[in-house]
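Propose amino acids for all 545 sites.
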């Protein structure tokens, strides 16, 4: 048996994130829906991804576009209904693929029936399901915490005379995970979806569910950026007591035990923080999450945001490889619905191609973000059209709308996303007539073709799936990043040039090889590795002899 078949699906597979609002509209309202995802499964299967992760599709007033959940066990009518979801899950499984759903345990919508009860009176049985506190003697909020989206993390409820906590918008009250009834009710929502065939969960801000028991003030951050918007209380503090408390790991173990009631399920967590604390989310012996999301290729290591620099990206991978215990499987993310698009972040499509080759040839599970495969950049949204509460509250440059624009399927008016006579909820790129799936899938040199080929090569190549990772130094210019993936006799070399001009990589110890794929998609040839020429922003995968 090869190593390949021993890997679990979430180790072998590539995850593709779908933002349901923006994938495909079949009802003609300018917003995507679950039926639209069903209709595009052939595309995803052909592209070569193994699992889809859906951002929230639950009933929601959409104060944070679905991350304010009003019912964990139903489907928002805008997106379909439970029967549509069941058809989607069946269609995904019929293709041998997996379905991962978003799970938002830290907060509900203020329209969730639990919160409506909780706020109805101080002695309601669900009062303690949320985090209510008395005002300070002067009437101000119970502590100094700020909301990620601006303003304080507390809102006063005049009818019961207390504040409730929300670290996002005020329509997202936070659940009290120290209450055993809350925990039991939330774990049941996992079972609900696993019984419906869900293979895994992406757990929203999972590190926030437990806060300091005494809700102490966070310390002031002396290094906070100057010129912060006045209402950005959050960035003025160091996040010490509101997240990543040691006690969270006991909760995570219970979540994991719930997943383990069903065969082969996978838990993915949205987590940030320094490596030594982040790695704890795998559990001491692997009894935590299967994949704590690793955003460091996207966000950097926390000192400064990721820049297009070979040594910086390599440093992230090397630190990760050095930190992970044997039982922990790595994973990498280069884009999601909260961050700048990778084309924009890294400076253009040429760089994004090299980044895609990196993401899909490293050791570990890659997560792709819809639209990155056709090179969608951040799309400007006129200020009066901003939808994202973060942009509305903290200023246009903080708006996440720019990375959530609709998928571009073809050159027709509205890009095949919604009918021509309907306004899509967000705009397309100016070049959508050429930047679309229909056209780019016919173009043998498009970034879409590159993704397709990288995905196919990864699936066929055990060395890329499960082989070891070894970076090379000797003969490698400082603006290149070169590594080996080795599995038994097979050895693959990945050489990435981050420079905007050509470079020579001098690897005389490696003899001959064959270029299997170039990010430029124009060469497949035998080469001598003592002088491997890379063009500006070119990456190659070389099978070694
Ligand atoms: C996570 C989500 C983000 C959302 C926030 C609150 O960070 O990725 O989109 O706004 O949690 O749920």
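Proposal:
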């Amino acid at each position: 048996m090869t190593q390949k078949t021993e890997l679990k699906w979430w180790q072998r597979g590539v995850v593709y994130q779908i933002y349901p609002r923006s994938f495909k509209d079949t009802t003609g309202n300018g917003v995507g829906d679950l039926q639209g995802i069903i209709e595009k499964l052939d595309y995803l299967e052909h592209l070569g991804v193994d699992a889809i992760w859906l951002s929230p599709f639950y009933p929601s007033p959409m104060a944070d576009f679905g991350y304010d959940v009003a019912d964990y066990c139903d489907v928002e009518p805008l997106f379909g209904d439970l029967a549509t979801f069941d058809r989607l899950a069946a269609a995904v499984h019929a293709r041998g693929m997996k379905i991962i759903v978003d799970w938002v345990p830290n907060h509900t919508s203020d329209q969730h029936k639990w919160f409506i009860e909780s706020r109805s009176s101080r002695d309601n049985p669900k009062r303690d399901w949320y985090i209510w506190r008395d005002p300070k003697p002067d009437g101000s909020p119970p502590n100094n915490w700020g909301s990620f989206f601006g303003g304080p993390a507390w809102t006063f409820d005049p009818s019961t005379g207390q504040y409730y906590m929300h670290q996002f918008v005020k329509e997202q009250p936070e659940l009290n995970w120290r209450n055993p009834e809350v925990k039991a009710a939330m774990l049941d929502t996992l079972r609900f979806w696993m019984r419906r065939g869900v293979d895994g969960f992406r757990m929203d801000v999972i590190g926030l569910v437990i806060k300091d028991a005494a809700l102490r003030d966070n310390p002031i951050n002396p290094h906070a950026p100057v010129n912060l918007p006045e209402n950005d209380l959050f960035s003025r503090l160091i996040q010490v007591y509101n997240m990543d408390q040691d006690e969270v790991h006991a909760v995570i173990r219970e979540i994991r035990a719930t997943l383990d009631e069903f065969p082969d399920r996978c838990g993915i967590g949205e987590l940030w923080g320094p490596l030594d604390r982040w790695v704890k989310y795998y559990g001491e012996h692997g009894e935590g999450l299967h994949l704590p999301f690793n955003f460091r290729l996207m966000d950097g290591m926390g000192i400064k945001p990721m820049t297009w620099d070979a040594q910086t990206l390599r440093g992230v991978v090397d630190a990760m490889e050095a930190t992970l215990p044997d039982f922990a499987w790595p994973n990498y993310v280069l884009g999601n619905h909260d961050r700048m698009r990778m084309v924009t972040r890294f400076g253009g499509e040429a760089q994004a191609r090299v980044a895609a080759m990196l993401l899909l040839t490293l050791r570990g599970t890659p997560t792709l973000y819809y639209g990155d495969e056709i090179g969608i950049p951040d799309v400007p949204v006129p200020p009066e059209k901003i939808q994202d509460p973060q942009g509305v509250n903290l200023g246009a440059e903080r708006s996440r709308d720019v990375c959530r624009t609709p998928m571009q399927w073809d050159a027709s008016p509205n890009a095949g996303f919604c009918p021509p006579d309907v306004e899509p909820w967000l705009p397309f790129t100016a070049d959508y007539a050429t930047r679309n799936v229909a056209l780019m899938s016919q173009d043998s040199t498009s970034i879409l073709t590159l993704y397709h080929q990288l995905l196919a090569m990864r699936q066929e190549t055990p060395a890329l799936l499960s082989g070891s990772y070894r970076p090379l130094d000797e003969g490698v210019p400082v603006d290149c990043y070169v590594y080996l993936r080795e599995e038994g006799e097979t050895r693959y070399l990945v050489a990435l040039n981050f420079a905007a001009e050509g470079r020579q990589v001098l690897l005389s110890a490696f003899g001959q090889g064959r270029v299997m794929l170039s990010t430029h998609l124009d060469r497949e040839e035998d080469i001598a590795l003592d002088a491997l020429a890379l063009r500006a922003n070119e990456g190659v995968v070389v099978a070694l002899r």
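Residues 64, 67, 104, 168, 204-205, 270, 337-338 surround alpha-D-glucopyranose (CB under 6 Å). The domain at 113-165 is CATH 3.90.400.10 (Oligo-1,6-glucosidase; domain 2).
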